[in-house]
Records
---
Amino acid sequence: MQTILITGGTGLIGKALTSALLAAGHKVIILTRNPDRYQESGKLSYAAWDPAAGTIDEAAIRKGSAVIHLAGAGVADKRWSVKRKMEILNSRVKGGELLCKALTTIPNEISVVVAASAIGWYGPDPVIPNPKPFEETAPAYDDFLGSTCQIWERSMDPITAMGKRLVVLRTGIVLAMEGGALAEFVKPLRFGFATILSSGKQMISWIHLQDLVRLYLNAMESGSWQGIYNAVGPIPVNNKNLVLTLAKLVRGSSFLPIHVPGILLKMVLGEMSIEVLKSTTVSSSKIRTAGFQFAFPTIESALNSLIKST
Ligand SMILES: NC(=O)c1ccc[n+]([C@@H]2O[C@H](COP(=O)([O-])OP(=O)(O)OC[C@H]3O[C@@H](n4cnc5c(N)ncnc54)[C@H](OP(=O)(O)O)[C@@H]3O)[C@@H](O)[C@H]2O)c1
């Protein structure tokens, strides 16, 4: 049994990961800005940290054997005002810096840190269809998401210099019914509309939440894993295929496909529309070569399992 610290463990990925770690017999301490909101139970406890204030519960650091670092302001939660962009960036960078400072100054037995990053690192596919998938060696794209991911990942560099193992998972679009992108696609289906965004040709590099949870466990437990890995499924899908596959599973044949024009999305979402309009095809070949096997390799298997689970 190990004691795993999870920053941002109260979020979509963190909750699923916590359940899996507890089921595997580990202790979990969630580092949150609001520990008073949550109730300890069994092997699960909460400890305070606040990246903006630069404070962290020292006792939690002393108890931990591994850290999973997920915290950060939601990229798609609000329109990207200048203030929101600063919050998205600062929450990640200050979180990384605080964690590194804590691991340097507080005596601890932590040997491995697994940190989230995102496929926002990569730019748009240079050609559509059939682009060459982005490998981990591709440079960061020169836009807000690319720069944010670059600075975010760099904030974790000191971990390696401390002699601890660092694994960074550049995560694709996480498919889960509890939240994130899929929940947004399901909403209009309640009224019978399958909303295809723009041409629907933009590629989505996705991963099932349960595969991502297994990937985090794998990265934490396998001593040979080190460095950057793309956390995406083996078969990216375009927006139209994803939406229509989902619609058929949820409503059979009783739905109406509609295209939401890209210009409208740009007006409503502003710069954040890039999140839904950009085509990004990302390679999973490094994690597969490292031995990871997907429980949900196809979009049909992933959506089927998610819909059955509700
Ligand atoms: N879900 C996806 O599709 C996806 C895709 C690519 C990458 N990722 C990355 O994976 C990580 C986890 O994703 P998720 O979907 O689980 O995120 P989430 O549900 O939004 O949860 C993130 C957690 O971060 C903490 N947080 C929020 N705002 C913060 C701020 N301003 N300062 C410090 N902490 C803050 C919150 O914990 P407390 O309120 O308890 O402190 C929150 O529960 C994120 O870094 C995200 O960017 C996710």
---
Amino acid sequence: MVRNLKKLLAEAEKKKIAIGHFNIGELEMLKAISHVAQRLDVPVIIGTSEGERDYLGIHHTVDLIKSYNQEHGHRLFLNADHTHSMEKAKAAVDVGYDAVLFDGGKLPLEENIRKTKEIVEYAKAKNKKNLVEGEIGDIGSGSTIRKEIPKGAAIKPEDLTKPEDAKRFVKETGVDLLAPAVGNIHGMFADAPEPALDIERIRAIRKAAGVPLVLHGGSGNTDEDFLAAIDAGVSIIHISTELRVAWRRGIEAGLKKNPEEITPYKVVPEAIEEIEKVVENRLRLFNRL
Ligand SMILES: [Zn+2]
């Protein structure tokens, strides 16, 4: 069992596959992801955003993932997703997250570099195995159902992350992973197709940056786009909104099927089942199974 995320990423890149990153907001999501990871025997990254961390508690989350790994003998890594505050990024490192994303994507490049570098130095001093991800470019925020592209989010070629900025950012900060803006947008669109990914831009950024790329806002993108993005240099793909949609659908179905039921664990299996379907589909695609 490889417990080193960096090595795993190098392996993934060679095999032209990507590691799935799924956010959890509660126990049903973790159960569903863990079931599928075990069934398919693939490593998975569990993400918690700042809001999800506030709700779940960081100590509790770390303990939960540790005990899942011990109990099931599989490979769940834990990532502190989209961390905007320096204090929260450091706190995640302190309690034992495997990776942290310091999100300075909306900051001016200079300030983003300065702050991200501070987190990299902090994390590496604590534990050399900690991975730090940086973000450049605006990919919108929030795993929600959208009616329109969020204000400021980059989808025009001139607004996407530039390879030369990516190169400078990685060189000056020392990040292990980079999240660029390449046509990806957080959330999903209600009635319109997701904007296409700029595959050539991904390839150029990967070459210039020299570190594996992380694709955020994967929900709603096409299978073809995902596979092309992996070929071009994406090693981690984030899926969150699709899980939230499945959770909601499952809870509604569970309540409808058992209208008098008040025992939570008799209602939520429908939600777990719905989430598992999404996770399995995505993991089969990302791991080319
Ligand atoms: Zn994201």
---
Amino acid sequence: MKQNTPLGIVIAVGNQKGGTGKTTNSVHIAAALGLRGYRCLIVDLDPAAGATRHLGVPENSFAGSLELLTTDETVQTLAITEGMPKGVHLVPSRPQLSELDVVLSKFVDRTCILDQPLALARQLYDFVFLDTPPSAAAITTVAAYASSEWFLLSAFPHPLSLGGLTEAFNDIADVRARRNPELEVLGIVFTNVDGRATRLKAELDAVVSEAMPGRRFSTVISQAVIIPMLSGKGKTLFQLPKHDRIRVARQYKQLAAEVEHRVLNRDAYLSGELEELPRLSVAPVVVADELDAALAMG
Ligand SMILES: Nc1ncnc2c1ncn2[C@@H]1O[C@H](COP(=O)(O)OP(=O)(O)O)[C@@H](O)[C@H]1O
Ligand SMILES: [Mg+2]
């Protein structure tokens, strides 16, 4: 639980492909850790500003990651704290972030642009989530991988994602070799999982066990129509009444518990000796309940 000295853990949430759950995972893992009493910051590093919208911040209304990377403003002056889920602050993004390359001085080393902003963030927060854009070559992606200690890989099981996973593993190996040997894989989470796609899941499991044994999270996040509905409304699952009855909300709490368990027991995890948390017993989903709850939110 929360300690007086912040843990100061930085987690890059990545996958070079778009639409693989990066934003949904950043927002909900942070929100679930916030409910556990941790101080969390999400830095939206994507000009598409998915996390910003998901947290209900109107587009273009605030300075954010562009200023964080190009001015003297800090996470302290830029983080939005009002109207956020419990324990969560947000450095928002907006489309102008795509002009970062032009705005940055020619003489700045682009891989280091997050070092200084994150130094302060580590002093203030337990967990900092870097939500990256869907391109491994984007300046913010490279900078996020270069200055994090953990990498959380988010993947949708899809026949095409097999190749994407291998590409992601290669990117991680490349960052470690060339730039940031400290970067460790916190876990691979499969999300948007259709319970019927068992063969596909088994194939993906095999790819992960081969390339990154022991690194998959045991929690998988089910496919749930409520998630796109809520993101469109700028809300998280945990803002729903009776969210404990909603399967994906419980899965995100379990996933957050796994994140906490691995981070707090880093050495045992990295040496393959960490025991997994007991599996969550999942109540049967009642889809109508989820939809009713979403509709009740307006
Ligand atoms: N578990 C899920 N069930 C159904 N839809 C999901 C789930 N997770 C994410 N989505 C939806 O899939 C789309 C892509 O997810 P997103 O988190 O934005 O991915 P990324 O940030 O990698 O582009 C979004 O519309 C999101 O609402
Ligand atoms: Mg995104």
---
Amino acid sequence: MDLRFSADQEEFRNQLRQWLERHPPPELPPELSLAEEVRQLRQWQRTLWRGGWVGVHWPREYGGRGGSLGEHYILQEELARARSPELIGRIGVNLVGPTLIAHGTEEQKRRFLLPILTAEEIWCQLFSEPGAGSDLASLRCRAEPAEGGFWVTGEKVWTSYAQFARWGVLLARTAAGKKKTEGITFLIVDMQSSGIEVRPLRQMTGSEEFNQVRFDRVWVPREQVVGEEGRGWHIAQTTLSHERGTSPRQLVIHRILLHEMLSVARRERRADETLSANPLLRQELAQACIEVELFKLFNWRVLSRLQRGETLGAEASVVKLFWSEMSQRMHETAMHLLGPRALLLADPQTFAHGRWARSYLYYRAATIFAGTSEIQRNILAQRVLGLPREPG
Ligand SMILES: Cc1cc2nc3c(=O)[nH]c(=O)nc-3n(C[C@H](O)[C@H](O)[C@H](O)COP(=O)(O)OP(=O)(O)OC[C@H]3O[C@@H](n4cnc5c(N)ncnc54)[C@H](O)[C@@H]3O)c2cc1C
């Protein structure tokens, strides 16, 4: 394991830092409507793209910078350090783009990749269904083959940003297979097609990024199949593999949270003592310090393996499991530090106007998206420890 970045990579970091000083990320106050937030985030992604900071490790011919994984890692770290919000087009940039680069036709790459980087076109991921989340292969959405394309009928759920998406990647059943994973096709769907109904779902954060999406005989032309018809499960594995692995952004976010928590603990007083003198809070803070350090080492180990050209396999599950549960423990400590004020989501008196409390609610989802903690543990139990599969 090599724990140093190269001189070129450090130069890349310096250039990016200087650029971010000249182009500070937007601050998005909590009272902003979701539509306005999305508008500002599109502008921000476009500014980043013009600077050459979106898709740095995508090939140059498709609008990327042809950079290394190490540079991609540094980019995530530096954006988080500058408190840049996440890219609005992240489903496109992180999941759809790499899938099309690996499996798309040349025509699909030419048509779809550039507008993903510029945020001109937002994408959504139409995989989960009311009866198929962890057990995704039991999906029931149908795509009936016809002359020149498919008629899609079914229902998807938890589709982030579907109400703003121009395109979606959809898993649908085109044939019955011997196994559940056979007969699934990976399709690109125009979200403006007739027969699509998008219904936003309100989350406990108060936001409505999620949606329920219904398809009632929606036409998808054959040119919009990715890979081979019926082999969509295999294509979807590429998409899903990009959801786990290193999380430099999460590392920096939690490092910042840790520093903020330590400074609040040293500064604030409750019941005649500074918070940092309270033995229970001291223990929780010490635990958080240990976990952030461990998470850094996990990230570095994964990055150095990927840079050597190795694949990750079950190791991606260790990282996902660790950071998602760490984030929940750390946010609980943040709530303990705030005491009763933790209940206020937008109080000007509360630390950072309720940002900790909103993040606390948001991170409840971290042990669900990109594969739940139970699923990660199953993967580790079976593939790393060699335990038998669960019955049934
Ligand atoms: C913030 C967020 C964004 C998301 N965005 C998208 C998106 O854009 N597109 C999309 O397609 N999906 C999206 N999802 C959906 C996500 O992929 C699913 O929620 C996830 O796969 C879990 O599926 P489920 O919700 O149906 O839960 P279920 O699979 O029904 O699981 C319910 C519970 O049972 C447990 N469980 C299930 N199977 C097993 C097992 N075999 N062994 C042990 N325990 C088990 C689970 O761990 C969980 O605790 C998003 C989810 C979140 C939280």
